[in-house]
Amino acid sequence: MVIKTLIQRLTGEAKLKAIAEQVANSCAGIVWDKVSHRVHSMTTPQAQGYVRGRAGRTVKVQLEQAILRNGIAKSRRTKMMEFTMNSLINMMLDRKHEQQLVPAVDRRAA
Asked: What is the pLDDT of residue 10?
């Protein structure tokens, strides 16, 4: 575990993950609006692929801005995209599962 932490410090991976998390948070609302109507009827692997496909353009735009803002080397773009997509997919699946656990209330007039 110590070696892994040392490697992460040397490569700056912790910083990349933190920035990727921020980008994923900034994209979450937009992507949820795009996918929420379909993901509830999908299995987890289907939903992962669907979110990845629908989120691509939104994440790419936000990620480019974050890379420029934080002075990250262009060579790290692929790694950043991977971290951001994984984080965003996890957020969307968590949201999907949360909404499936809350039962719909059917109110009727007395």
From this structure: 63
- DSSP annotation string for 52-92: HHHHHHHHHHHHHHHHHHHT--GGGHHHHHHHHHHHHHHHH
d(CA 80, CA 20): 6
Query: Could you tell me if residue 2 is inside a domain?
Result: no
Task: Extract the tokens encoding 72.
Answer: 């990250």
Please state, in angstroms and rounded to a whole number, the distance separating the CA atoms of residues 14 and 35. 29
User: Does 1 map to a domain?
Assistant: no
- Give the CA radius of gyration of the chain: 17
Q: How many CA within 13 A on the CB side of residue 76?
A: 21
Task: Give residue-wise pLDDT tens across range 23-49.
Answer: 999 999 999 999 999 998 899 999 999
Is residue 21 in some structural domain?
A: yes
Which of 66, 106, 108 has its CA nearest to residue 83? 66
Residue 5 lies in a domain: no
Residue 22 parent element (H or E) = helix 13-39
